[in-house]
Amino acid sequence: MRLPILILHILGGSIGLASGAFAIAIPKGSRLHRASGNVFTIAMLTLASSALVLRSSHPKSATSYCKQHHHLLHDLDRCARRPLHEYGPA
Predict the structure, then answer these.
(1) Within a domain: residue 90?
(2) Other Cβ atoms within 10 Å of 84 Cβ, number
(3) Per-residue pLDDT for the chain (90 aa), expressed as one digit of tens each?
C-alpha cells in the first residue's frame, strides 16, 4: 500500500519541479504560463496530499505538515490571482 503512494508522491514532486521551472522561464500572463502554473498547482496538491497519507502513522507530524502547507498554498493562490500590473515592469 505504501509503495504506490510513494511513487505518486515522487511523480508529483518531479512534475511540480519541471512545471514550476517552466512557468518561471516563460513570460507572465501568457497562456502557456497559466497552463504550466495550473499543472504546478495540481502537482503540489498531489505532493502534499500524498505526503499526508504517507505520514498518517504519525499524527503530530501530519498535523504540523498540514498547517504549514495550508499557508503555503494560500499564498501561492493569492500570488497567482494578482493582476499583471501589480508586479511592475519586467
Answers:
(1) no
(2) 10
(3) 678 888 999 999 999 999 999 989 999 889 999 999 999 999 999 999 998 888 776 656 555 656 666 666 666 666 666 665 555 554
